[in-house]
Amino acid sequence: MSDQVPDQIYFEDIEVGDNIPELVKTPTSQQLVYWAAGSGDFYQIHYDTRFAQDTGLDDIIVHGALKHAFLGELLWRFAGPEGQVKRVQCSYRGMDPAAQGKDSAQERKFTLRGSVTRKYTEGERNIVELSIEGVRGDGSVSTPGTGVVVLPSRG
Amino acid sequence: MADQEYESVVTDEMRAMIGVKGPETVNELTTTSVRMFARAVGYVDPAFYDLNAAGERGYRGLPAPPGYLGTPIYNPADSDPTFGGRRGQGFRSPYPLVLNGGTDIEYTSEQICSGDTLTSATALASLQERWSGALGVPMLIQISETTYTNQFGQVVAISRGTGISYPAAPGG
Description:
The complex is a heterodimer. Chain A contains four helices and five strands; from the N terminus they run E-H-H-H-E-H-E-E-E.
């Protein structure tokens, strides 16, 4: 399968405590403009530096909903082509300045990661619950959350 | 920091809004709008861009990436230029500064795809006041719940948003 299509993981293959593959993003100002157009959120603190600074921010910041969507992509990739994302929840505990205002490649990274907290079957559905989070380049967590996916069975 | 004394800004009128659904909004999913959202997140999965690839995976259109529940249909003559949709609807906090506290989207159907039209309605679900030690001001935490129903009459998603509003910081 193309590397653009996520690999399939099966319900039987995962255990509680497993870490899922990470996803690394670099949310530049260009991506925030893409997001404004794609999502319809045109609040100026996300693309107009002077406007952002007038509200007391140091620089433009990443949209909360984009961080939520990044976590959705993390789960989409984990669930694979036959799986389904059933829930994506997160809290915005801190603001994340856009990448171009940061000095190093490490600081510009925004990493999405997760681990399995529960797996169970309900009817014919194989349900997996996860703890997920968005992590800044310095290792601090700005966007903790939870997710639920349905995975296919090998059986 | 211990809670500070502060005066509640929640009125009976605000409390009466809890659970009352606002007007409906029609949200459209097209192939182009799904692709735009997917590009904005950074997806490279062909299911979001190619109808044949999506069809081979069992989708009846391009699947909506998690977080995408359509684009509201509105005319700028009577809409909010920042967030779209109609002006002056729903709960308004008495505090001027607002932070997005969180997002929770639960999917209750198998598929949301291009070609779908989702009708949404939002109700205020809860109001809570709390002292913010970090900001040094009281905060009003509002949770709103939006239900999305597709053109077949199925509820396909429930989205809960947390808004945190607060007055200007002391001396700020």
